Structures are given as C-alpha cells and as structure tokens.
Amino acid sequence: MKTKKIYFLTILITTFLISLSSNSYSRSNLEEIKLLLKNGKYSRAEKLINKSIETTPNNPEFLFYKGIIETNIGKSNEAIDTFRNLTENFPELPEPFNNLAVLYAEKGEFKLAKKILEQAIKTNPSYLTAHINLGDIYTKMATEAYNKALEIDKSNNIAITKLSMITQLFNYQPNTKNTEIDSTKIIKQVEQEKQTEKQLEKDIFKSIENWKSAWENKNMTEYLAAYAANFKYPNNMSRPDWEAYREVRITSKKTINIIISNIKLKYDKEKIIATFNQDYKSGKLEQISKKTLVFINEDNKWVIFEETSG
Pairing state of beta strands 285-297 and 302-309? Predict the structure, then answer.
C-alpha cells in the first residue's frame, strides 16, 4: 500500500524575529529580495542575497532568506547547512529550527526532524507552525509503523483500519496565512533577556567579592553565609566539621590577601559556574590556583553550592 505523501506546511517566509539593520541599503535590499521571492525570481534573488551577505555577513535575516532561496531552487543540502548554522548562532529564533526540520523530514529523517521541532517549541512554546509540523511527523512515523505491520501480516485488519484513518488525516491542511510579527515586541524581549544576564553577572561578581572580602577580613559569619545550605563539603565532611576546619584555617592567619582575576561565567540551567584565577597570600605563603565556584540561588541570594581548585 502506497502511503500518501505527508503534507508539510510551506516554509514560512515571515518577518524574522530580529530587528532589521538601520542601514538603509540593507533594508532596500531586503525588500527587493522579498519581492523577487514573491514573484518566483529565485536566480536574481540568490545573486542579491549573496551580495547582501558579503556586506553584512552576520545578519540573520539575510541568512534566513538565503536558506529560503536555496530550498526553492532545489539546493536542499545547502539550505540545511544554512538553517543549521542559524540555529547554532541564533538559538533564540524558532523559524530556522522549523525549516531545518521540514528539510530533514522531506529526506525521510523523521526522528531527527522530530528532535529539531521539539527544540523549536522549546525556544518558543507558542510557535503554532512547529506544533502542527510536529503532529504531522508523529502521524508519518505512525504510518510507517503500520506499514511494517502490514508487511509482516497482510491480513491485519487493525493495521489496515488505522492506516486508513492516518492517511485521511493528511488531507487536513491548516491555515498557513502569513502574519506579521511585532518586531518591536521581540526587540524589547531580547533587550530584557540581555539586561537579565547583565544583572546576573553583576550579582555573581558581587557575591564573589563579598566572599573574598569576608575571607580576607576573617569574618567567619559572612564567610560561611556565602555557602549554600546543601554545599558539597569536601572529604564527606559534615557542615559542623567543615565550618570548624575552615575557621581554624582562616582565623589562625595573621594576614590574608586574595587577588581574583579573569572571571568567566557559564550559565547552566539553575546554576551559574564561575571560574577565575586566584592568587592567595598569607605571610610567606603564596598559592596561585584556578578556582571554580558553582552558584545557586537560595532565598534570593546567590550562594556557593560547590567549590573546587586546580
């Protein structure tokens, strides 16, 4: 039994989720490219898009339309590379994920397409196109499974009934009318995310500085408060044993001077990992090491969950 070809949504040519360059040359080029695409003049559009990318190589909107053009002129492998690069360099944008998934699905790589569409939905849970395409992927995968069942047992009436139902579902073609995206809203959203990251960086830097100052000043109350309640204590120590150990190590020193440099942050879900160079001096002792502090948010305060040196 030949399964009807899956109907995928036409790859959206939408207003991209990034503000256009203020450069008037880029804007006029973009409008001309859209017009050429609308009129099916892909060869001219390809020449213009390549010229535009030479001028602004990191403009995601030009790169997006490059993938659209490559898809329309049959350069699917090139389009896959273009959309894949967009997902890697601009992971906050769901459209490249969707289009990449559609291209893989057309090659019959449904599991990979499914995974990519799930990523698109994770990026933007309200992205309707990805949800519909994901439903089509599940349906196609189910169809293939029923086909295999029929190959094994051609008299399997259950599989025949299910297959018929699924095939009929493919006749459903949802409304794919393009809608303009409010780019102003998206710009504000991106700016808010950047501000949030800057604030997180500021908070972590402050936590590191407070921890360092408490250590240098031998202020054990402030020093111990810098650590989380579930801090990973070294050598399987209990908290009382670790606190007693640290108090002896710190308060027994006449002077402590610590220089911290080259702080780098990595955001990992609920944690923020800070790595830096630590130059510790106490009397004649000097130790230079690479320090890693893993921070978690505890009662609206960033505290140390894990500490390693080396």
Answer: antiparallel
- pLDDT of 213 > 60? The answer is yes
Q: Which tens digits make up the pLDDT trace of 80-112?
A: 998 888 888 888 887 888 888 888 878 888 888
CATH 3.10.450.50 describes domain 191-309? yes
Q: Residue ranges per domain, the chain?
A: 24-183, 191-309
| pTM, rounded to two decimals | 0.42
Phi and psi of 285, rounded to 5°? -85, 130
- Architecture of the domain whose range is 24-183: Alpha Horseshoe (1.25)
Q: What is the mean pLDDT of residues 152-160?
A: 53
Share of the chain above pLDDT 70, in %: 71
| Residue-wise pLDDT tens digits, 264-281 | 998 877 899 999 999 999
